[in-house]
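Continuing the batch. This is chain 6 of the set; chains 1 through 5 are on the previous pages. Same settings as before, nothing changed between runs. Recording input and output for traceability.
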Amino acid sequence: MNYAGTGNEKAVAATDLNRTHVGLTVSFQPDDATLVFGRIGAIVRKDTGVVIALEGVDGTAGLQTNYSVSPTQNVYVQPDMLTNTESTIKDLFGKVQENLRGHKGDHRPDAT
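Output for chain 6:
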């Protein structure tokens, strides 16, 4: 297996994971035979690598609750819809402001 995420996921090196990623959906390949999809519950950095603990996994049905990955390994994070929406709105608002500034001197005198 050589997992490289899907089109809407963002590749993040495991060492770059931080508290802003907790609660986001992640996918990664911890070894050659395993592909993991889940929600990040915690991130632990160690000398030997990064441990990703999954939220809502209690070890039943033989599922692991945490996985160790190398610091340089990419994990694939689903975009946070709220953050994406917020940045899109900010971008659109900025374009509207810029557009209005560009048309500021385009006043037509009223015909009387």
